[in-house]
Amino acid sequence: MAKIKILQEGQSYTFRSYFELPYEAEDILAEFNYSLIKSRLSLPQTTKQLDRLPELNQRIEDVLPFISLSNETARRETLVSPIMLEVVRYCQCKMRIEYPLTVNNWLKGNLDYLLRSTNNLLVIEAKNDDLTRGFTQLAVELIALSHIDEQNVFYGAVTMGDVWRFGKLERSQQQITQDINLFKVPDDLDSLVRILLGILEGE
User: Fold this and answer.
1) Are 87 and 197 contacting, i.e. CB atoms less than 8 angstroms apart?
2) Which of 21, 48, 143, 183 is least surrounded by CB atoms within 10 angstroms?
3) In the predicted model, what is the mean pLDDT of residues 163-188?
4) How far apart are CA 142 and CA 136, in angstroms?
5) What would the pLDDT profile of 82-134 be if each residue is shown by its tens digit?
6) Virtual CA dihedral for 68, 69, 72, 77, nearest 10 degrees?
7) CATH of the domain at 151
């Protein structure tokens, strides 16, 4: 069966476009010569003492009953940003919010959060709903980063604030792995932050 051409020459696509396309992630990533596999990722974790984390956990627990998480802004401000700021405090890494990135007409747009340490990069894509299509968008953002940065392995996560899923791009194998494991906030906050820091500390 002939492969369907999804992306049209001369057409412009932003990262957001890939969230909206009605195609399977495998088919979209194949346009960039990447394969997608789904398996349990072995993610790096920091062994640092995270003494301030219980306080953040409690703050999130305290406000969740009173906040409606019906849109992306609410999810980002209530759940994603406080976690990102905590990660920055621990790792002293640089964070860019709504970071503009243009590689070409098919790879351009804004990254919700881009964290950069001396060893590694981490991109976070925040969504109001649909983690599956959100992962497709994240995967394309990782491909874009692989065009401008030298490293071989890139990590990212897509989140709806209360649920997180990680992804890993391996440039040498032209492969993206979608973690089958999900992390929930606030229940898995400790594991989640340990992984975010572990990625930024570098392997």
Assistant:
1) yes
2) 48
3) 98
4) 10
5) 999 999 999 999 999 999 999 999 999 999 999 999 989 999 999 999 999 99
6) 80
7) 3.90.1570
Q: Which two tokens stand for residue 150?
A: 């030298």
As a whole number of Å, the end-to-end CA separation of the chain is: 42
- The answer as to whether 97 is a domain residue is yes
Q: How many domains does the chain have?
A: 1
- Classify residue 58: in a domain, yes or no: yes
Residue ranges in the chain assigned as alpha helix (H): 15-20, 25-30, 53-63, 72-75, 81-91, 131-148, 189-201
3 state DSSP class of 141? helix
In a domain, 25, yes or no: no
Tell me the residue range of the domain where 64 lies.
46-201
The answer to whether the Cα torsion of 38, 110, 117, 88 is positive or negative is: negative
Q: What is the pLDDT of residues 115-129, one digit of tens each?
A: 999 989 999 999 999
54-89 burial, b if ≥16 CB within 10 A, otherwise e? eebbeebeeeeeeeeeeebeebbebbbbbbbebbbe
Statement: the pTM of the whole predicted model exceeds 0.90: yes
Domain assignment present for residue 83? The answer is yes
- Residue whose tokens read 């956990």: 57
Q: Tell me if 192 sits within 8 A of 86, measured CB to CB.
A: no
Pair type for strands 175-179 and 35-39 = parallel
